[in-house]
Specification:
single chain, alpha+beta, Nucleotidyltransferase, domain 5, GIY-YIG endonuclease, 5-stranded mixed beta sheet, 16 helices
């Protein structure tokens, strides 16, 4: 019924490494009925650190058969048997990769004794094979050799079968069960509590640290896809092995999920998120007062402490907008930091500048024109509340943008009326604006031009 297997390999992930040793014990639930063991020529060099761990040298495998030679024997002894291994995902990925290299599709129902041990023997400090055997009094010889580890796994499986009073083994072997798909350290209960709703999900390691943040229209399905379709790269295998828990936050709609995902990635800096970890500030037009009392304008990156008058997704967009508005409203190009000159701007000599750059125009009159131009800035850069589906039927999501600057999002009860603007904006939790957020909102509005909106 079972083929208890252990492999030794040239490295930790199947895509770039090969098998160096195979041990298989056919176990009928009570006794070993057949066995197979062989060193394997990996047709590549074994790294020194692997030799140090397993004791298998390049000289030992030089005359060993290739995997192609022993593949028929492996196929025969594992046929119609459950593939059993301690951390089955690792051994199974190597076995499938080796058969795939021969043009063959190797498919077996699999059973992981790490996952099964967590179910049947909960509360142990560690579920590594060495620690489990020491805790349970299972003899293990030739540690980190395939025949030694596989033989110990047979004894462990036998103990688990005899201790399985709650039928966890039957559940794991059920063809509809997710036990064989989930990572070895993720409890099925944690997966089963996931909703099929829009939201953000978090993968945590055994210390409770967030190692990945993602968003999904269907949280449960998206989480499962990580494990059904995961790659066999070293990073993917490490990612899978480190997942010990999964939590989630409901968002109501995709836009809120995108905004929250972006914020959480920058907050937790998860090691397995590749994008959006670095904060990309958006560019904006800022104002300040110089020593002479003139209100000056400049293009600069937006910060959490210094919000711009108007925000843009790039420097070029902000720069082009400032130049157009300076010309339309007759502002000084030197005081707007368009021209970097020590004295008068170039337009002063042609009469197109009223002389604020050399203090001929007093600050009071110049600042009034700047203030008037800013009202036009704000008019062109809308302020609004973007409405969407909430987490419940009686709730609405709110995304607040003020003068092009993202203020945050929140949720409001449907009993609040649209004219109660102070109450609505009070429901919004503050979040930082940055270039990623500007891109998310801009892309969403472009894709959903008829989105429900309250202009402020």
């Amino acid at each position: 019924m079972y083929a208890v297997i252990d492999l030794e390999t040239t490295g930790g992930f199947a895509q770039r490494n090969r098998v160096t040793e195979v041990a298989i014990y056919a176990f009928d639930g009570e006794k070993i009925v057949d066995e197979f063991h062989s060193l394997v020529n990996p047709e590549k060099s074994i790294p020194a650190n692997i030799t140090l761990l397993t004791g298998i040298t390049n000289e030992m495998v030089a005359d060993a058969p290739s995997f192609k030679t022993i593949a028929p024997e492996i196929e025969a002894i594992t046929k119609d048997r459950v593939f059993v291994a301690h951390n089955a995902g690792f051994d199974y990925s190597f076995m499938r990769r080796e058969f795939r290299s021969l043009g063959l599709n190797y498919i077996r129902k699999k059973l992981c004794t790490v996952r099964l041990s967590r179910k049947i023997l909960p509360g142990l400090h560690s579920y590594s094979l060495g620690t489990l055997c020491a805790t349970l009094g299972i003899p293990i010889t030739h540690r980190h050799r395939a025949f030694g580890d596989a033989r110990a796994t047979v004894t462990l499986l036998d103990l688990l079968i005899k201790s399985d009073h709650d039928h966890h083994l039957d559940e794991a072997l059920n063809r509809f069960s997710r036990e064989g798909t989930l990572p070895p350290n993720l409890a099925a209960e944690d997966f089963n509590q996931l909703p099929e709703n829009v939201g953000v999900y978090y993968f945590l390691d055994k210390k409770g640290q967030v190692i990945y943040v993602g968003k999904a229209k269907n949280i449960r399905q998206r989480v499962l896809n990580h494990f059904v379709q995961f790659s066999r790269s070293q990073r993917s295998m490490e990612f899978r092995h480190q997942i010990s828990n999964v939590t989630y936050e409901l968002c109501g709609n995709e836009l809120i999920a995108l905004l929250l995902e972006s914020h959480e990635i920058k907050k937790y800096w998860p090691k397995f998120n590749r994008s959006q970890r670095f904060t990309k500030p958006c560019w904006g037009i800022h104002q300040y007062c110089d020593r002479a009392g003139y209100t000056r304008l400049t293009v600069a990156k937006s910060t959490t402490k210094d919000r711009p008058i108007i925000s843009f997704r790039s420097f070029d967009l902000a720069w082009d907008f400032l130049r157009r508005q300076v010309e339309v409203h007759g502002l000084c190009k030197r005081l707007s930091n368009i021209q970097k000159l020590p004295q008068a701007c170039l337009e002063y000599s042609t009469g197109d500048c009223t002389g604020a750059c050399i203090a001929e125009e007093p600050p009071e009159s110049y600042n009034q024109r700047v203030a008037h131009s800013l009202t036009h800035f704000n008019h062109l850069n809308n302020s609004y509340l973007l409405l969407g589906a909430g987490r419940r039927d009686d709730e609405t999501s709110l995304v607040w943008v003020e003068n092009g600057s993202y203020k945050g999002f929140g949720f409001a009860e449907d009993t609040l009326q649209h004219h109660q603007m102070d109450d609505l904006t009070a429901c919004v939790n503050p979040y930082h604006d940055n270039q990623d957020i500007q891109r998310i909102i801009g892309s969403y509005l472009k894709a959903h031009p008829r989105s429900k909106m309250i202009k402020l």
